[in-house]
Specification:
By secondary structure, the chain is an alpha/beta fold. 41% of the residues lie in helices and 13% in strands. The strands form 5 sheets. It has a 5-stranded mixed sheet, sandwiched between helices. The chain has a 3-stranded antiparallel sheet with strand order 9-12-11. Strands 1-10 form a two-stranded parallel ribbon. Strand 5, helix 7 and strand 6 form a beta-alpha-beta unit. Helix 1 runs antiparallel to helix 14 and helix 14 crosses helix 16. The longest helix is centred in the last third of the chain and has 20 residues. The protein is globular. The protein binds pyridoxal-5'-phosphate. The site of pyridoxal-5'-phosphate has 15 residues, from helix 4 and helix 5.
Length: 449
Amino acid sequence: MKTQIEPFKIKSVEPIAMTTREQREQYLKEASYNAFALRSDHVTIDLLTDSGTTAMSSKQWAALMDGDEAYAGSVSYYKFEDEVRKITGFKYIMPTHQGRAAEKVLFTALGVKDKFIPNNTHFDTTRGNIEFNNGNAVDLLNEAGKHPEMIADFKGNMDVEKLEAFIKEKGAENIPIVMVTVTNNGGGGQPVSMQNIKDVRKVCDKYGLPLYLDCCRFAENCYFIKQREKGYENKTVLEIAQELFSYADGATMSCKKDGMSNSGGFLATNDEKVAEKAQTVLIVTEGFLTYGGLTRRDLEALAVGFREVMDENYLRYRIGQVEYLGKKLSDAGIQIVQPTGGHGVFIDARDFLSHIPSTQFPAQALCNEIYLESGVRTVEIGSLMFGPNTMMELVRLAIPRRVYTQNHMDYVAEACIEVYKRRNSVKGLKLVWEAPILRHFTAKLAPMD
Ligand SMILES: *Cc1c(COP(=O)(O)O)cnc(C)c1O
């Protein structure tokens, strides 16, 4: 059969907002031209993020009832820990309320002041947490990953030569850890190959550095490895994940992604000293070791989610849905990051709105125009998020897990294509107000006259 179907049926439905163009113009103005400030009941299809927007399964909803709400030693924690350990093999597993909390705990425990932390591409909160602790976040992405139109299997790979040169330049004593983000969210949800992880590990070993994975989308990454990397085609996603984590000393995760759940995260490490410090930070800022800021029932949902996310029927549909939307856009002439990655389609706004200079936030302008056209909310990953030196100007259409159908994707594609037809009339934006850090979340903008 050629038609890809959703490998689930729908047991409970939630109505979505249907709005008029006139209403949307008003809503966007009230939101100061920043989609983050839109009320969700003014949004028809919400592709702002795939984070915490997952539809839970009936098994997960059932598991919630089993939550053991004990403050200490909750049975729900041990179920969560068992699942995470089965996949990652890590010794110390600390739950947190979401991914950035795990980052905060890790960087506080490591002490990163004036130090350097290389990554393929730091996600915005990872960079934010390092900089907030007066450290330096450094991106060392391979060359192919920087070119949206270039087709390659593993555009998330770290540039290993650059990594080694960087360590030599700064000195290993100034680099507390090396990180690799799987898949590379900031660079289009592109996967990292097992070979690249092994090569990074080799460099880390040579200089005595620990390797940590930002593993928010480990299952999607492992599915790509299975599809694209020689020697992995007959392995299960679990086996691939186990090998992937075996090269790392620790990890941070936002379970709001491949935990298939609406909240949660964890910090894991094999290093006893790091764990001791992290546990203190965790207790002071998140919560006790066996819940880390989460209700225990959330840990139950995560324990089930970690099994469901590695189901290959699910992953085939998941990656297939993203590919389906990407193909519709590129067939219409819209330049997207090729090939499509794990969790969304990334439109190249520099190409789409080539008449708008980056000082006028072309990617943000495109987000707004897609919203006005259709009520579809997307997100800017460009000069508003990263500043004027941004590598790319992208609009991310992040697909929530198990939430939208193929018909919804057709509607989204139609909206983008309509805007594409009248792209020359789209205007840029100017900044009216910004916060000193992570400004894209709260920035206020206005259309250029
Ligand atoms: C989402 C995300 C984070 C942060 O996680 P939150 O749960 O949103 O705090 C960190 N790194 C990557 C790669 C992410 O995608």
